[in-house]
Amino acid sequence: MKDLTRISNVYGDGKVIDACCLFGMMDTSGKCFSGRDVTRAIANMHDRGNGLGGGFAVYGLYPQYPDYYAFHIMYDSKEGKTCTEGFLNEHFNVHHSEEVPTRPVAAIKNPPMVWRYFLDADKCQREGKLSPDDYVVARVMDINTGIDDAYVFSSGKNMAAFKGVGYPEEISEYFCLESYNGYLWTAHGRFPTNTKGWWGGAHPFNILDWTVVHNGEISSYGINKRYLEQFGYHCTLQTDTEVLAYAVDLLVRKHNLPIEVVAEIFAPPLWEEIERRPAKERELLKALRQVYASLLMNGPFTVILAHEGEMIGLTDRIRLRPLTVGEKGSMLYLSSEEAAIRLVCPELDKAWIPMGGEPVIGSLKHPIGADRVAVAGGAV
Amino acid sequence: MTENVATPKMVKIDTAGIYYRDLNAKLRQLVDEGVEHIELTNVCGQRYIATDLSRPVDIKIYGTPGNDLGAFMNGSRIEVFGNAQDCMANTLNAGEVIIHGHAGDICGMAARGGKIFVRDYVGYRAGIHMKEYQDKKPMMVVGGTGQDFMGEYMAGGVLVVLGLGLKEGETHKANFIGTGIHGGVIYISGAFEPHQLGKEVGVAELDDKDRKILGDLVNEYCAHFDCDAEAILRKPFKKLYPKYLRPYGRLYSY
After folding, report:
1. Model confidence, pTM
2. Cβ-Cβ contacts under 8 Å, A319 against chain B
3. Closest CA relative to residue A253, chosen from A155, A173, A181
4. How far apart are CA A251 and CA A267, in angstroms?
5. Which end of chain A has fewer surrounding CB within 10 Å, N or C?
6. Whole-angstrom Cα distance, residue A255 to residue A261?
7. Where is the signal peptide (chain A) (predicted)?
8. Is B59 a domain residue?
9. Residues A342, B44: C-beta atoms closer than 8 Å
10. Looking at beta carbons, which residues of chain B come within 8 Å of A273?
């Protein structure tokens, strides 16, 4: 009998090195840069994934259409495309549409069609009180749950998610990401554990302009999913991470909570820690745990969340998955491994490992290094 | 007749772009040929460096080595000019690892011998389940502080936390220090609250024997990182020890 391990693994040792990899880089001054460095960085952690999922989120991507929702949609069949385009024309004004350009990559087998549409949601006025954002969320859910062979990869303004089955560097090559520019990029290399590796299940997950890439396992998925269904979010992508994208949209956009509070909901301090906090903080933390018990993310995780103008790194409260941070000038880097950051930026101003459950936030509103530059400028 | 080529004692490798398996194969080959000193530059995430060498050598690393640096290492000496990632010195058997920077999570995991010196701080679960047997006794010195679960399930060895960089009266941030400890000892300088310790941890003053062990390790730390041993040893230290040798011995008995 043929020894297949010798064919698929030239080293013949059968070792599986398993863990997802995450990378995020943001210029908090808003300057845009290409996908080259983020691809090199995530490729440096190649061995953490197994080729069953890779993806990227990019912000500041479509300056020519900043005010239109940019829908990236994956189709498994022509019927799915025809049906979806009919749906889009009925519910939106589509200003421009095209196939997302790709190039042939040997490792990418049987890719689905991926199209993008730039559209406005002015027709939302037909549905009474719905805001354009709510209208978009509802229509995305309609497509994902109601139309066969069509999945919305991303639906935000001036941003998009590119993802598929393959190693992240292969996905980057396939979608020609070196030719795009953005001020914030996140990336993911996948090692699927409980669910299958398919194009829709690759990270990032998205709703509106929120994206999430994730390493770990959300064992509270069932309870999170049921809670989100009450608010009209339907999980269709067969992977635990999806709940995080909807949860953060609900908490930040609908419930107006600051991201620091969201971190306390996803990764709350342990009860005994809450008891030791000052009275006012204790009241808040208890209230959050009571009101949002169903959005506590249980299990080991590290995530990089992003939306327009902001990138957030967060781990579970006892940090069962790694996260390391680098800063250089106005750049913020988040990564599963420091080496990936050093590859694209060898001389960091600061490199550190945050405590579990404490968010690391990069924001256009509060660019890092700005005060440092001012001080330096004053001294000179 | 084969030509007799003198093996160089010292070899430098620019590791930029070299895959970790190829790098480790090269290291094995060099060590087998008799090389004593190896200098690796531009290291960037290559895993398992120095894990399976046939005899002890001296390795200097410039850059950021990957996970499991020196895993299962048996007698070599590694000096890193940069930070270490996760799982550094995993199940270290003998030898020395010196980090001129900080180290990631679970460094020194299950170490059963050898010495580890980290100039700055360490991530989660440093020294988890270190153990000792007869003359095999792992020792780890951390210059700054550690994150949660330092010395978790410790079964032997010595973990020293110097608390350098903490301000006067500032407490360590770590919680669950020594949770599940049932062997070995932790010497720690810098303030901590009782609730930061695992419930299996006892606190005591150092006796002369402790002072001797601590003094030797602090002197070694200061020799590596060029700092003042006397000043460090003047700081107050506490000894954390296991209250029970078999904390869960009766868990399934009755």
Report:
1. 0.93
2. 105, 123-124, 147-148
3. A155
4. 14
5. N
6. 11
7. none
8. no
9. yes
10. 175
